[in-house]
Amino acid sequence: MDIEQVARVVKLVESSQLYKVTIENNGQSVTVVNNVNQHEMASPVKSKTIQNGADRNSVDIDSALSQVRATHVGQVYLSKDGATDRLVSKGDHIEKGQTICFIEELSRLLPVVSDKAGVVSDILVENGQIVEYGQPILALEV
Predict the structure, then answer these.
(1) Pick from 30, 71, 67: which is nearest to 50 by CA?
(2) Global pTM?
(3) N or C terminus of the chain: which is more exposed, having fewer CB within 10 Å?
(4) How far apart are alpha carbons 11 and 15 in whole angstroms?
(5) Lowest mean pLDDT among 43-57, 66-80, 105-119
(6) Is 124 exposed, middle or buried (0-12, 13-18, 19+ CB in 10 A)?
(7) pLDDT per residue over 2-55, tens digit each?
(8) If you ran DSSP here, which 8-state letter would residue 46 be given?
């Protein structure tokens, strides 16, 4: 199995809303699972199986596409520092590519950039909360 192929699939899963991808090739298999919250697992499972480079199953799409998710594991900050206003508030219109918050990971402050545009209908985390990779941060009306 080609490690570059596995790396490409990992990046695909990270940048998508897929839950699980399995690659099977010459008797070897690798499964990549996106970390999601328990309540989301109750929704239709989104998965894709790739065998010898060919798609085997289609991808189910659900309402999870209207959420902006954490891109790192760490402590979330809704403003750049404690002295400034939040980067986004409920009712704000955000654009694709806009920084919505920061996550402190291993003493680094990393921006979380929205991958979609819409109106913020709810902020799903509290300032200072620990978040997991893939955890919803904002709910959007698109």
Answers:
(1) 30
(2) 0.53
(3) C
(4) 6
(5) 43-57
(6) middle
(7) 677 777 777 777 776 666 777 777 777 777 777 644 334 444 444 444 444 444
(8) P
Q: CA angle, 83 as apex, 78 and 86 as ends, to 5°?
A: 30
Q: Are 68 and 114 in contact (CB under 8 A)?
A: yes
**Strand order through the sheet with 28-33:** 28-33, 20-25, 47-51, 54-55
- Please, are residues 121 and 130 in contact by the beta-carbon 8 Å criterion? no
Q: Which runs of consecutive H residues, i.e. helices, occur in 1-142?
A: 3-15, 38-41
With residues binned 3-state (H G I as helix, E B as strand, rest as coil), the percentages for the chain, rounded to 5, are 15, 40, 45
Structure tokens at 96: 């694709």
